[in-house]
Amino acid sequence: MEYEVVIGLEVHTELSTETKIYCGCTTEFGGQPNTHVCPVCMGLPGSLPHLNKEVVEYAIKAGLALNCSITKYGRMDRKSIFYPDCPKNYQITQDELPICRDGFIEIELEDGSTKKIEIERIHIEEDAAKLLHTTVGTLVDFNRSGVPLTEIVSKPDLRSPKEAVQYLERLKSILTCIGVSDCKMEEGSLRCDANVSVMKKGSDIFGVRTEIKNMNSFKALEKAISYEVDRHIKTIEAGEPLTQETRRWDDTNNITVVMRSKEYANDYRYFPEGDLVTLNIDDEWIEEIRKTIPELPYEKEQRFIQQFKIPKYDAGVLTLTMSMADFFEKVAEISGDAKSTSNWLMGDISKIMKENDIWIEDLKFTPEQLAELITLINAGTISNAIAKKVIVDMFNTGKSPKTIVEEKGLIQNSDTDAILEVVKKVLDSNAKSIEDYKKGKNKVLGFLVGIVMKETKGKANPQIVNKLMNEEIKKY
């Protein structure tokens, strides 16, 4: 039997405000446990919340960027939750009147077509405290309690784990671009719950749904959904019942694990938050916020393709984060070589950042210095091989490529006579390779060129080496 996968995502995003949603405590990440707290975010009796206006503004901005309509008259609600990380035994959130509704994101499918993923709602709410499970018991850190969140709920329009990842990547790029969240998944600024079910192909009746909670990486999201889809299908085909429940992803064993039976809306006993006033959002404020939205990632992607003539794939990768897009644009404009800029950023520089677990804004060298490196390569001053060593020094020291090249004597050798001597020496020492070449093994040329480059410590101009090697080997 063929099955169709049905996926909807609930994405929690920490907003980049300086203070929490209902009090004046800092939202700064880290700090000693329970030092960014006050009676309000600790849920102490008698404490009263007041709504941070900037939280509302950021939520509206996100909604506009995600093609939503804005709820002009709304309120906050209490959601009853009996967990140790929520000491009030309720969370202040939104129920019937979310601040944004009916938006969408477009993702690109493998065949090049686009697919619209509808967004049902965006609402604002407070984050819970953090539970620390230790050998002596469970500890509670309230630093995160009251940090402002948006919850962005998609409709069940996603049909594969890859589509889910694409949607989340596009959502992350938009939110970081407009500056409402840093979306640092490793710090918990972006967390995702996935609702997963399967149904018979061609059916319009959804299957039993399970929710996978709190995934904070694209890889975990794809693996967890794939596992859950496989589990659903095996259970159905074995004739066993599926239970609606909440599960978590066990990254060590690559399985989902039951947390609890799935709650329903009436379990939360929503009712209006009486300690906060209603929200009244007028058209003038909405338009003021709309004017602050910059060029969005998919718009920037199209411009990069047209302006810099780079491939669509490159443009898509470079616009996943605005810091990378801005870095690329500066280097491309200064160097006049957009494709080389793209290659360096997507290749060696991305590798360095991944190995050192840093972001592009943490690099010691500037866009101007990378442009200088590309100019040195294009001028024939250094080879690509030398440039790969120089970029590592630039990362470690922050020195300009020109300074590094001069200090280490790395200027490329374009002396034809000197290179010819090395070529002849290599050919004289590799009679077997010459014989293989004459038998039609043309790949031997690359091997011999590599020896010449090694002999010259990478300083020989590779174009001259290739030209001379092609000419000289025919004489043997």
TrEMBL record:
<dbReference type="Pfam" id="PF02934">
    <property type="entry name" value="GatB_N"/>
</dbReference>
<dbReference type="GO" id="GO:0070681">
    <property type="term" value="P:glutaminyl-tRNAGln biosynthesis via transamidation"/>
</dbReference>
<dbReference type="GO" id="GO:0016740">
    <property type="term" value="F:transferase activity"/>
</dbReference>
<comment type="similarity">
    <text>Belongs to the GatB/GatE family. GatB subfamily.</text>
</comment>
<feature type="domain" description="Asn/Gln amidotransferase">
    <location>
        <begin position="326"/>
        <end position="473"/>
    </location>
</feature>
<keyword id="KW-0648">Protein biosynthesis</keyword>
<dbReference type="GO" id="GO:0050567">
    <property type="term" value="F:glutaminyl-tRNA synthase (glutamine-hydrolyzing) activity"/>
</dbReference>
<dbReference type="InterPro" id="IPR003789">
    <property type="entry name" value="Asn/Gln_tRNA_amidoTrase-B-like"/>
</dbReference>
<dbReference type="InterPro" id="IPR023168">
    <property type="entry name" value="GatB_Yqey_C_2"/>
</dbReference>
<dbReference type="InterPro" id="IPR042114">
    <property type="entry name" value="GatB_C_1"/>
</dbReference>
<comment type="function">
    <text>Allows the formation of correctly charged Asn-tRNA(Asn) or Gln-tRNA(Gln) through the transamidation of misacylated Asp-tRNA(Asn) or Glu-tRNA(Gln) in organisms which lack either or both of asparaginyl-tRNA or glutaminyl-tRNA synthetases. The reaction takes place in the presence of glutamine and ATP through an activated phospho-Asp-tRNA(Asn) or phospho-Glu-tRNA(Gln).</text>
</comment>
<keyword id="KW-0547">Nucleotide-binding</keyword>
<protein>
    <recommendedName>
        <fullName>Aspartyl/glutamyl-tRNA(Asn/Gln) amidotransferase subunit B</fullName>
        <ecNumber>6.3.5.-</ecNumber>
    </recommendedName>
</protein>
<dbReference type="InterPro" id="IPR014746">
    <property type="entry name" value="Gln_synth/guanido_kin_cat_dom"/>
</dbReference>
<dbReference type="GO" id="GO:0006412">
    <property type="term" value="P:translation"/>
</dbReference>
<dbReference type="InterPro" id="IPR017959">
    <property type="entry name" value="Asn/Gln-tRNA_amidoTrfase_suB/E"/>
</dbReference>
<keyword id="KW-0808">Transferase</keyword>
<dbReference type="Pfam" id="PF02637">
    <property type="entry name" value="GatB_Yqey"/>
</dbReference>
<comment type="subunit">
    <text>Heterotrimer of A, B and C subunits.</text>
</comment>
<dbReference type="InterPro" id="IPR018027">
    <property type="entry name" value="Asn/Gln_amidotransferase"/>
</dbReference>
<keyword id="KW-0436">Ligase</keyword>
<keyword id="KW-0067">ATP-binding</keyword>
<dbReference type="InterPro" id="IPR004413">
    <property type="entry name" value="GatB"/>
</dbReference>
<dbReference type="GO" id="GO:0005524">
    <property type="term" value="F:ATP binding"/>
</dbReference>
<dbReference type="InterPro" id="IPR006075">
    <property type="entry name" value="Asn/Gln-tRNA_Trfase_suB/E_cat"/>
</dbReference>
